[in-house]
Model the fold of this input.
Amino acid sequence: MLLTLSTTHSPATDLGYLLHKSPHKPQSFDVSFGLAHVFYPEATEQRCTAALLLEVDPVALVRDRQKSSGEGRSLEQYVNDRPYVASSFLSVALSRVFGAALSGRSRERPELAARPLPLTARLSVLPCRGGEVFLRRLFEPLGYTVTATRHALDATVPEWGDSRYFTVTLDATLPLGELLSHLYVLVPVLDDDKHYWVMEDEIDKLLRHGEGWLASHPEREVITRRYLRHQRSLAREAMARLSEGDEAPEPEDAPSAPDDGEVMLERKVSLDEQRREAVLSALVEHGATSVVDVGCGEGKLLRTLLQERRFTRITGMDVSVRALEIASERLKLERLPDLQRQRIQLLHGSLLYRDARLTGYDAATVVEVVEHLDPPRLAAFERVLFEWARPGVVVLTTPNAEYNVRFEGLASGGFRHKDHRFEWTRAQFESWARGRAERFGYGVRFVPVGAVDAEVGSPTQMAVFSR
Done:
C-alpha cells in the first residue's frame, strides 16, 4: 500500500521538517501488522514528495488473531486485499510514523505547520465502497480537487467490468495536519472495514481527528457509522457528542441549542462552556434550588446542574423527542442512584403553549433559544414564561449580532445558525428585555458572556430577570 504526499511550497523540502522525516535517508518502522517505510522519490526546492509504503504481513496477522481468539484457519484469511490497499492499517501507520504532523506540530517549523500549503496526496489503490460518487461526497466538501481512476477487475477479461478500487489524487491548499486527519478518518470509511475490534475509545479518536470539520460535514452520519463499524450504540454516542439538535422541530417550536454551524463558529472562544458557567453563577447568586431548563436540548446544562447538590429539583423540557433521548443517555438516567434520579426529570413540550408543569420553580433557564422563534411567536413565549410559569428568576442568553463580524467564515449580515430567525444587537436585546421586565413585574440586569471586544461587545449576551 502506497501513499505519497507532495508540495510545491518554497522551499518544498520543508516537508521533511513537517513530517519529522529527513528527505536524505529512507527509514523503516515496526508496526503491529508489518513494516512502514518512509522515503522521498523527489526532494528539490521546487517540489518535494514523501512516500509512505506499508508492508503488511497477512500470515503474521492471521497467526496473531488465532492466538488471541482461537479461531480456525480459512483461505480468506490468507488470500485477501489487505496487503495492497489503503485501509485502517494506513491510519495506524499515520499515527505511528507521522504522529507529530498528524497533530499539527513541528518542532523546527511551528508556524509552517499551521499554515495552508499547496498539497497533493496520492493513494495508489483505494477501495471505495460506494464508488466514485461517494468518494467525492467525502472529500470535495473539504475543499479537495479529486481525481479518481477506477481499476478493472481484470484487464485481460474486460467483460468482468470495473472493480471497487481506485487510484485517487487529492489536491488542496490546507495545513498538512488537516490533510492527514482527513485521511486518518476517511480512508477506513471508504474501505468500510477495520482490522481491529472497535471499542468506546474509537469515539475519542474519531472526534479528536474530526475536530474542526466532521461536525459540519454533510456526510457526518455515514462517516460516523462506518468509522465505528456500524456499531449502533457507539455511533449514537458519537453523534450525541458531535451534534447539536439532530432533529429539526416543527416551525412553531424552538430548537434548544445551536447546531454544528454555530458550534464551529464559536469554537475558538469556548462559548458553550462559558455560557453554562455564566448561567450557573447567576442561579447560585439568586439562591435557586429548583430549576427548569426550557429548551434543554441534549442536556449539557442539565448535566452541569446535576453536579451541584444545591439543586434539588431539576427539569429539562424540549420539543425534540430525539434530543430528549440523547439527553437521557448523556445523563445516564437509567443508571443514576435513586436519590440522584429523584432530583431530575425530562419533559416533552413546547415553550409556546401554557403548561402547568412549568410552574413552581425558583428559576428558569433559556439558553440560545429565543433566536430560533419567529418574531410573531415571541409574544406567546413571553406569556408562557413570564406570566404563567412565572419563576422567581429567569436567565436567558442569546447571540450578540454585533459580534458576528469577529467570526471568520461568516458572511456579512449572516446568522450564526441557519435556523435563526433573528439575532439582536445589544441595544435591541436590552430594549426587548426591559420591555418584558416592565410588563411582567421583573427587574433585569445584563451580563456579557465571553471575551468583551471594545467595539462590538461580547459574543453572547445574557439577561437575568428577577422578581
